[in-house]
Predict the structure.
Amino acid sequence: MSKKSFRPDVDAPKWKGGYSPYDIIKEGTIALVVILVLTLIFAIVFGSPDEKAITVRTWSNADPIDFATTALSELNGTSTSAAYGAPYNNVPGSGQAMGPLKLEQWVGVRIPINAGKDFVISPLKSLPDQPILDQNLKTWSTASTTTQNSWLSSYGKAAAKMKVVKGQIVVNTTSAGPLPVMINDLTQMARSGALDQALVTGHGFYTTDYTKPLLFLADSGYLSNLASNQHLTGDQWGMMNETGSYPGQAWLWLYTFWYQIPPFNTSASGDALVFATMGVLSLLLLFVPFIPGLRSIPRKLKIYRLIWREHYQDSK
């Protein structure tokens, strides 16, 4: 039988040098203690701040005009959630794609969201003992689409001069039908905290589904301003930072890096492109041991000799 040939990029050569004792238990214990002490020190000095959760109530009390404006955008279909497409709703031409591959359309509508109904109409209908509001909701629901659009247009034109007077949303228009009452009552509902509850209890008494309040908040200018102030927006390296700290989740740098350069930062399908790029890179890393030439790079560069320099010095 012929002797098996040595393959330098696969087989490890037989060690012919000397051996020295090594207490792995002792070294491991020392390393564990050192890392534990450093972790505690860094956690105290550089720990993440305990930022309070942002709710619809927080938002509506901090910026009631922004809340009312966002509620209007949900009703007229101009908000991000209303025009997002799959998996929330069917909007022609929406969603991300890679060439002919319509990724979001493949998923379909899995979490149905009707922005106007779910964020405005249904929560208002849940309020008890509101005869004036109930009458305005009835007026809205029985009106034609053309009439509703006319009211929305009139309210939208007057919304630029929207004011808060004694806690009430005031819009100077007489041709917006029931909208002034509806938007104002929704704002009061949000400021009391009742809207938070109404948006999360749609699937039963006990629920942790915060999809609706999160989408509603994401449509606002308030949340985006907070993100910008904390350096969390996409053009500020987003996930690289955690609130109030720097640099935060640094291990995500490779993922967020792609969002800073073309074509990723200019494409409407940037998320899909980044996902595909990271998928290819991950597969490449996974199959490094099986790719001839590439797997030989560490052996040819001989970086291991630098890492184990003391060992190679003693073996001379």
